[in-house]
Amino acid sequence: MEEKSTLQEALDFLRSREKCNLLMVMTNIIVFVILEWMGSTTDTMFMLHHGAMYEHWW
Predict the structure, then answer these.
(1) Which partner for 4 in 8, 13, 36, 53 could form a disulfide, CB atoms 3.0-4.6 Å apart?
(2) Averaged confidence pLDDT in the chain
(3) Distances in whole angstroms, Cα of residue 39 to Cα of each of 2, 42, 53
């Protein structure tokens, strides 16, 4: 029996997931990349200014 390549294993994994789940994961990755491009996601003040945390008004 042939061993699967790492790429083929990754593709098989992605095909086994629901589209909504993959959409949420891809959205999170895209938002992270955009935020990292704009500044540093390890900087607390940068993240606060971009909606990482908010205080409830009630």
Answers:
(1) 8
(2) 81
(3) 45, 9, 17
